[in-house]
Amino acid sequence: MSQDQSQNLQNIPIQVTDTLVFDDFASMKERFAAHMKEIDEEMTRLSKSLEGQSAKTQSGTTTSKGPLILDFLSNSRLIESEGENRKLKLQFDVSQFDASEITVTIQDNKLTVSATHEGITDSSTTVRQYQREFHFPQGIDPKTIVSSLSKDGVLVIEAPLTISTEKPVPK
């Protein structure tokens, strides 16, 4: 990583909370797995769309100088609230890791969640790793991103959205 890149890299602190994402113990594991799979699929779809939008903006194929227009955000399950209170809410299943083993960083609108667990016994060493990336829309202020880790191992990352989902009026 070059010095320029490392200067843009920001760690996002993780707040450990006493909350549970799933509070009913019956069938919790199956519901948890199904919920996390749905969220993961939506995050992947949205991140790919945002990555493509970012590539278009960087290559100069879009000419808007105002807020980024992203119609597909308004229909995403990852968006909470409405109007000026809208926020992007991401969830990651890191239940197999301690909070101290999890790192959340952002660099150039790309969020990275990584975790490493090393189990050492007398006869072996086991390493378990997790890494996910998510491309945020342009205009997200990294200082406004917050993360929290629930008791049941769900890392929740929230970022306020200041992006317009309205279509521009042609001039």
Give an overview of the whole structure.
The protein has a single domain, classed as Immunoglobulin-like (Sandwich), CATH 2.60.40.790. The strands form two sheets. Strands 2-8-9-4-3 form a five-stranded mixed β-sheet. A four-stranded antiparallel β-sheet has the order 1-5-6-7. About 8% of the residues have low confidence. It has two helices and nine strands. Helix content is 22%, strand content 31%. The chain is globular, with a radius of gyration of 18 Å. It has 171 residues and is of the alpha+beta class.
Strand content: 25-35%
Strand order of the main beta sheet, please? 2-8-9-4-3
Order of helices and strands: HEEHEEEEEEE
Number of helices: 2
Shape: globular
Rg, Cα atoms, Å: 18 Å
How helix-rich are the residues, as a percent range?
A: 10-25%
Low-confidence stretches: 62-69, 163-168
Largest sheet composition: 5 strands, mixed
Instruction: Tell me the name of the CATH class.
Output: Mainly Beta
Distance between the termini: 43 Å
The strand count comes to 9
Structural class: alpha+beta
Task: Enter the CATH topology name.
Answer: Immunoglobulin-like
Q: Tell me the CATH architecture.
A: Sandwich
Structure keywords:
single chain, 171 residues, alpha+beta, Immunoglobulin-like, 5-stranded mixed β-sheet, 4-stranded antiparallel β-sheet, 2 helices, 9 strands, 22% helix, 31% strand, globular
How are the SSEs ordered, and which strands pair?
Layout: H1 3-8, E1 10-11, E2 14-16, H2 28-59, E3 79-80, E4 87-93, E5 102-107, E6 110-120, E7 125-135, E8 146-149, E9 154-160
Parallel strand pairs: 2-8
Antiparallel strand pairs: 1-5, 3-4, 4-9, 5-6, 6-7, 8-9
